[in-house]
Amino acid sequence: MVEKVIMKKIIFLFVLLLMCFSTCDISRTCGHVQFITPEGEIQVVFSVTSDMRKYSGCNANYFRGVCETIACGGPGKFMVTPGDVDPPGNVYYTIKAYIGEEYVWYPAAGNHDAASSSVMSWLRNFNANGNSLPNIVNVGPPGCEETTYSFDYGDAHFVILNEYYDGKNDYGKDGDVVDALYNWLINDLASNTRPIAFVFGHEPAYPQPDEESGRLRHGSDSLNAYPFNRDRFWNALVNYGVAAYICGNTPNHSAINIDGVWQIDAGHARGTADKGARSTFIMFYVMVNGNVWYYTYRLDLETNEYVLTGNGQLM
Predict the structure, then answer these.
(1) Is residue 141 classed as helix, strand or coil in its secondary structure?
(2) How far is CA 91 from CA 88, 129, 261, in A?
(3) How many Å apart are CA 272 and CA 163, to the nearest integer?
(4) Which of 123, 246, 259, 286 has the CB geometry, 3.0–4.6 Å to 44, for a possible disulfide?
């Protein structure tokens, strides 16, 4: 009965969103957008955004501006968002409206998502049975089948972790890699046959300040709040040759290499709504020769356009 009530609410919100977006101006002006790409033959292109939360929808100053820039620059095939997507329906329709109907979205659960029963219900239904999204190879552990999963694309393996899974339910209060999630991750990485692997989760393992503003948030209450589990998790990434752990939550952008694995905090994609750090999105390129590159774009507050601020080679 409870699930039926929740589904009715989701359908109602879906209708409201359609009505809202029917009044949006979906015309796009690309302006001076021009993505820089690596030299050589590219196999897989994907974007990463995070922590846009309520700043999606029609307003071009917010997440819409991120999506329009990605669409103009060359979006690749899909977007991964490591959490805080509430309300997810609005985020999803912003992606569809301003990037494209065929563009695939792989969301992870963030702390604000896990705190909302309606958001978690939406995310479960979005990946119903744990394998509704394209190219899924492993569904999550019991109690977290839909919001932890992995998929393959080209030569790359992608792991989406719900770090609020407490071993029984997918909506715990603290971000952590508990035993059940860790064991699932080990089995997933051990069975992976792709030469390149990315792992996504909301909480940073090693919180860093924003690389420009220096703002530091969640410095002691991220995965590092449980140092044994954090260290065990990171050692697994190292041992299985994971290229990068990509996270959010802070919401600051940073990139740091720890023991051969990159931690890339995607920051926030709220546009002008967050003054503490510039709005950010990241483009990733998996090359035919096995190299992996990332390019970071951040909002220029004077021109209101996204500009390249840094790039690096992960592999």
Answers:
(1) coil
(2) 5, 22, 30
(3) 28
(4) 286
Angle at 147 between CA 87 and CA 257, to 5 degrees: 95
Beta-bridged to residue 104, according to DSSP, are: 78
Residues contacting 8, CB < 8 A, separation 6+: none
Residue 99 DSSP code: T
Residues 303 and 144: their CA atoms lie apart, in Å, by 43
Name 150's bridge partners: 138, 159
pLDDT digits (tens, 9 = 90+) for 78-132: 999 999 999 999 999 999 999 999 999 999 999 999 999 999 999 999 999 999 9
Q: Which helix (H) or strand (E) holds 196?
A: strand 196-200
C-alpha R_g of the chain:
18
Check: CB of residue 111 under 8 Å from CB of residue 175. Answer: yes
Q: At what angle do helices 117-126 and 2-22 cross, to 10 degrees?
A: 80
